[in-house]
Amino acid sequence: MRLTIVGCSGSFAGPDSPASCYLVRAEHQGRTWNLVLDLGNGALGALQRHIDLMDIDAVVLTHLHADHCLDLCGLYVVQKHRPDVAIRARIPVYGPVGTAGRMARAYDLTPPDGMDNEFDFRELADRRPVRIGPFTVTPYLVRHPGTAFGLRVEGDGEVLAYSGDTDSCDGLNALFHNASLALADSAFVDGRDQSAGIHLSGSRAAQAAVDAGGVRRLMLTHIPSWNDPALCQGQAAAVWPGDVELARPDAVYEL
Ligand SMILES: [Zn+2]
Ligand SMILES: [Zn+2]
Fold first, then answer.
1. What pLDDT does 218 receive?
2. Which ligand is nearest to the CA of 67?
3. How far, in Å, is the centroid of ligand 2 from the Cα of 32?
4. How far does residue 199's CA lie from ligand 2's centre (Å)?
5. Which of 5, 71, 75, 201 is the most buried (most CB within 10 A)?
């Protein structure tokens, strides 16, 4: 299983990275499967550096904040109007309840069809796994405004555990347990950001990984451009016993 960081800038696109988007790839049945986790602002452009948009097998949205879903509007245009593709299958799009309506409004589409001819919208439910080619994706409800999930992606005997946006919560224990790589929200800075129930900080991300048990690698992501990433990394390193990695745009990791 290969993880490509398409976008990792927190809350909005930064000068060096789009907002949240991660490409997970694995070989299965004689071809490469492409799973896209979140599709935030700016991500659709960067994604094309890595794959042809026609080769997306499924999109999974952790939640419906703009920085995690808005570039589905661009993919809708590709699905509907790309001139060199005659017949195009609907792409499965998994997300919280209300995803289809949310995306139709984002594009300012009028009812009744919305994006239903381009995408096959399917609802995520807490701890109910979905099978996508070689991947088993299990969503876990996390602690963030609105309905938000973390995603546990299993394939090739490896586990990618992506927190989505969350503060500390019970769901992270099962989500992160024995993960090959825990990819954790680290938007907040200890001592600066006091709001509860929105984001992890470096130290809280590390504590969640420690508490879950068996996590092999910890990688911080969703750091907004106004943060000093080294500060977040240092706050995590005070808690995490190993190396604290930072998600880098366009980097590819073998799990
Ligand atoms: Zn976010
Ligand atoms: Zn959010």
1. 98
2. 1
3. 30
4. 8
5. 71
What residue type is assigned to position 110 of the chain? Answer: T
Give me ligand 1 centre to Cα 28, in Å: 31
Q: Cβ neighbours of residue 117 under 8 Å, at least 6 residues apart?
A: 80, 90
Q: What ligand has the least distance to the C-alpha of 143?
A: 2
Q: Does residue 220 register a pLDDT over 80?
A: yes
Spatial neighbors of 189 by CB under 8 A, at least 6 apart, are: 201, 202, 227, 231, 232, 235
Report the alpha-carbon distance of residue 206 to residue 192 in Å, rounded: 18
9 CA from centroid of ligand 1 (Å): 9
Dmax over Cα atoms in the chain, in whole Å? 55
| pLDDT above 80 for 85 | no
Which residue type occupies 90? Answer: R
CB contact at 8 A, 196 and 164: no
Q: Does an H or E element contain 79, and which?
A: helix 72-81
How many angstroms separate the CA atoms of 16 and 250, rounded?
Answer: 10
Residues having C-beta closer than 5 Å to ion ligand 1: 67, 165
Cα distance between residue 35 and residue 17, in whole Å: 19
Closest ligand to C-alpha of residue 224 is: 1
DSSP 46-70: HHTTTS-GGG--EEE-S--SHHHHT
The answer to whether 248 touches 214, Cβ cutoff 8 Å, is no
**Ligand 2: distance of its center to the CA of 83 in Å?**
34
Ligand 1 centroid–CA 149 distance in Å is 12
Q: What is the pLDDT of residues 179-206, one digit of tens each?
A: 999 999 999 999 999 999 999 999 999 9
